[in-house]
Amino acid sequence: xxxxxxxxxxxxxWTLLAIVGAISMMGLLEIYSSTHASAMAGMQWxxxxxxxIGLAGMLLLSFVDYHSLxxxxxxxxxxxxxxxxxxxxxxxxxxxxxxxxxxxxxxxxVSELMKLIxxxxxxxxxxxxxxxxxxxxxxxxxxxxxxxxxxxILKQPDLGTAMVLVPVAVLGAFLAGIEWKHFAVxxxxxxxxxxxxxNMRHHLKPYQQKRIETxxxxxxxxxxxxxxxxxxxxxxxxxxxxxxxxxxxxxxxLGFVPVRYSDFILASLAEEQGFVGVCIVLLLYLxxxxxxxxxxxxxxxRAGMYVIMGVTxxxxxxxLVNASMVxxxxxxxxxxxxxxxxxxxxxxxxFLALGLVMSVRLRRFVN
Amino acid sequence: xxxxxxxxxxSWNVNDQKIPxxxxxxxxxxxxxxVAVLLVGFWKLQVVQSGHFADLAEKNxxxxxxxIAPRGTMLDREGRVLVDSYPSFSILLLRDNPKLxxxxxxxxxxxxxxxxxxxxxxxxxxxxxxxxxxxxxxxxASEADIAFVEAHxxxxxxxxxxxVQRRRYxxxxxxxxxxxxVGEVSPQExxxxxxxxxxxxxVGKAGLEKEYNDRLEGTDGMRRVVVNSVGKVMRTLDNVxxxxxxxxxxxIDYDLQSIAENDMxxxxxxxxxxxARTGEVLAMVSRPTFDPNDFAxxxxxxxxxxxxxxxxxxxLNRAIQAQLAPGSVFKIVMATAMLESKAIPAxxxxxxxxxxxFYGRVFHCDHPHGSVDLHKGIVASCDVYFYNVGRxxxxxxxxxYASSLGLGRRTGIDLPGxxxxxxxxxxxxxxxxxxxxxxGSTISVSIGQGAVTATPIQLARMIAAVxxxxxxxxxxxxxxxxxxxxxxxPISDDTVDQVTQGMYGVVNESDGTTSGLVKLQNxxxxxxxxxxxxxxxxxxxxxxxxxxxxxxxWFVGYAPRRNPEIVVAALVQSGGWGSVSAAPIVRxxxxxxxxxxxxxxPATTSTxxxxxxxxxxxxxxxxxxxHP
Lengths: 367, 628
Hints:
The complex is a heterodimer. Chain A is mainly alpha-helical. Chain A has 14 helices and 3 strands. In chain A, a hairpin with a 2-residue loop joins strand 1 and strand 2 (97-103). The longest helix of chain A has 33 residues, at 265-297. Chain B has 25 helices and 21 strands. In chain B, the strands form 7 sheets. In chain B, strands 2, 3, 4, 5 and 10 form a 5-stranded mixed beta sheet that branches. The model of chain B is unreliable at 605-628 (pLDDT under 50). The chains are: A mainly alpha, B alpha+beta. The interface between A and B is large, with 65 and 56 residues.
């Protein structure tokens, strides 16, 4: 390798990009299939535009040295927290939740931005812990850093995005060398918190309560809230091994699958492409994670590794929770499937996060 | 905390900490395991339970909408429509969205003019039914109702219209007891039908509607449509047209039926007129009656209760179900038995002082007839003459001839629920009452009282049989019916002549029981009166003159005297003398029959004349009519 020269396009992870391209393509096709016969026809083009914007953002970010971003971590964190507070005060409401601020005529979901910020902030924090042992004080600080934005996002309310921040901290702590006894204590704490949270459920918004009730007893109200999960399961199950064919899934085409082009796009795909299609998609995601871990293993320093693994934590968590929801293993939380679900903010987030990964990769040979 | 913005930690560039390769590898392995777990989850749904979910998916998106086949029409013998079907709309209320339903109720109550209590009651009644089954809030929607639903398709999506076929009985009460009525299939019929019927199907419940249900009911069609998640019909998958029921042509003559109906207005009883050669029923009336149109839409429970519990039994078809003492009409059986058995000489004569004593009991006659032979016995209907004939014949001979002439067993008419009447015999009394036949009972039976009972249709058939030399015709309603069998009980020509001379005398001789009141010019109108007591003479004597129960009046008439063309039986319950109450009705019908035959009666033009083929054709169009 030519040491001393700047980052080159040639050094981007083309295998990872090929996987990303394949997943995005399957997403675009399924968005087309789900919406072409409805009033929402043409959504795949909007999504393609978002992917294009995302790719451009990714390239730009990959040429920025991640160290300079980490240098600005405290400022970014502050900006993120202020942004979340602005959302709560001045936010733009949609479907009963304040998640967006208007920026130049476009709505911006600040919580998506907060995901990037938490990756950078925690990467910097863990990188500064210079031993292989996390102290209790370190853990407490990490917890605090994470829980402040989590709390603010929960307030919007957006349980899904709030939860997504947690694995960044968990995975970071694991890599930073959490002691097994601390890990055990945390586990016990979480185990104790679950019943507390259960008793607090009456403080949740009615729709959140309903989602939890539905998850626990889906059969009690087949026409009510359990309906979404049931319809998703019917779509997945009726797809069989080979699927009903592109554009031929009755659950999808007739609108029985809830938000079939977005959060439940995997159910639409499972119906039309069958178990075979699901295998392809999940193996692509597994390949994506393997590539990300590989990049982390070859990172020049721990800071870079933490950045990449923060991205990995969020993307992996998204895939796990979304796929589990589609087959009824987890309640409906509104977490999209990265690169496939329709949505501007979430697509932009994924590509910017990949930009961070590329930034680390491009600098592994640079002194 | 060492985090300070803008302070680069140069030490990052010093790779003094190794990358934790092992922990990173562990994360890869954990990811692999998690993906495997997810794939197992998908495998369970998509491979193991795939069939179950495929069923659910199909039920979700495909809805079968029945296309109701119209029932066949009923026409009279000249093709005049008696019963037909017409398409009509029912208004459905969808209940699967309780919130939307609650919001819509006030508007529906106002728009469809339903009282809030009524609507609430209907919803409460359907509470245990599955929510996706709509309820019918208006079974017979008016044009204004339909317009209301159509106009509010968008803001009242809980309302929908369903096309149904309704029965229309063009002449209301006319022929009602014979035609019967239709109604919703009962739970028993549903289970016996082995899937032939669906709940809510309309089937014949009584009369001809029931008898010929298989022919009248068509085969419902089915439209399978694809609906989306909000129940909107997206497209039609396939369409199986309804096959309308076949029309049936009856032997009924609308003109004769109208006359019989008019004559029976306000009375209690029955009339049946038959072609005496074939058994074709030309007219049949039973009173009191009902309007089958009341059953065609949903019959209110109270109305049904009222009809069923009515002591006047309007649902009973008296022409085939009233088993009553035939009174003196039975004397024709006696006369035939006397002559045919040759147990008594044809010249047998008795003296009637107005009563007779048998086995220590006094039996009355209407008045002293003096010397009575067979002819006078029939003409003047002398009880004392037939008491003696009965005593000489004995119950078993009487029973034999009565049975042979069709009494005590069903005529086999094509109507459900026909009653057999009763012809007593020694064997019968021993079987039912476990004692020997009392010879005194024979005396009562001889004049059609006591245990003997008969229906109007049996008496009409019996009289026709005697007058035609023993041809027991099969009464029937279906024109061009096949497989009918005329029973033969040969009666000698001498006997026929003597007995029919007597019946001719009843109408045409001055000392006949009808006193010449029902004579018809140029027509050999014959018959036999009957005035049957509903109480025994003993009971009547004890009540003295205070009794208010009147006798049942009978008249069975026919023409011409031998080999008759038409026979008519009339029963007027509590009508008193048969000669006064029943005979004029029979006369009117026989007269109308001949007037029509001789072209002296203008054809009725009040009802449209339709051929069965045309009727069937016009209904195909309505059956395949589309949902608006």
